[in-house]
Amino acid sequence: MDAFIQNHQYNEIIRQAKHVHNTRHTVNDDKVKKEFSFYCFDKICGLFPARAKEQEDLLAWILSIETEQDLLHYQEKIREAVIPFPQVTDQTAKKLFKKTKKLHFPKTTPETFEQLSYFSWLDTSSGKKFLIAEIDGELKGLVGSFLPYNKKSICHFCHHVADVGLFTIDVKTNTKLQTYKSLGNYICSDSASCNQHLTELDGLQAFYDYAKKTSN
Ligand SMILES: [Zn+2]
Fold first, then answer.
1. How many CB atoms lie within 10 A of CB 144?
2. CA 27 – ligand 1 centroid, Å
3. In the structure, what pLDDT confidence band is assigned to residue 216 with cuts at 50, 70 and 90?
4. Same structural domain for residues 106 and 38?
5. Segment (H or E) for 152
6. pLDDT-derived band of residue 215, with 50, 70 and 90 as boundaries?
């Protein structure tokens, strides 16, 4: 089967699978358990409106989750159908951030890109946070300032309570007048953990849309 699941969809599927597993142990009524697992199955099917029969069959394994072992097995099977994030190199990053003179691209391994919706790193010397995500089938870069916040707060991307910082992008609205517009939101400091919690891409997409809209 070809990979058809994006990272944030994988996170949502596993979240639902954990609900099913929990219900098996916390609810006694078999009818309720069954109904709940179908409810979760419906939810994950909703992520793939144009799904093929074999894709639905794979997702449907959620209905048979009973034990911890079943849950792990399901997780493995779903994992195999996840679309990998592209292996970003220093060269790719340089092309995406042409305006940045000294790009401090971090050390990466193939594992770095295993579970990602976006790849990100913080350049501590400049306080800039760099983001790379696939938008409309193309890798796109986004750079903004990142100001760590000393308290835990809700991340705008993954909606989890975590150590966050204020991520702000400035977009030129008028080249002649040198005017800027900016958009800022709190996002996770730890982008690897953020990527493991992301279940939708609206927050991330909003930044890319903003950058696109105002720079035209
Ligand atoms: Zn987050």
1. 23
2. 31
3. very low
4. no
5. strand 138-154
6. low
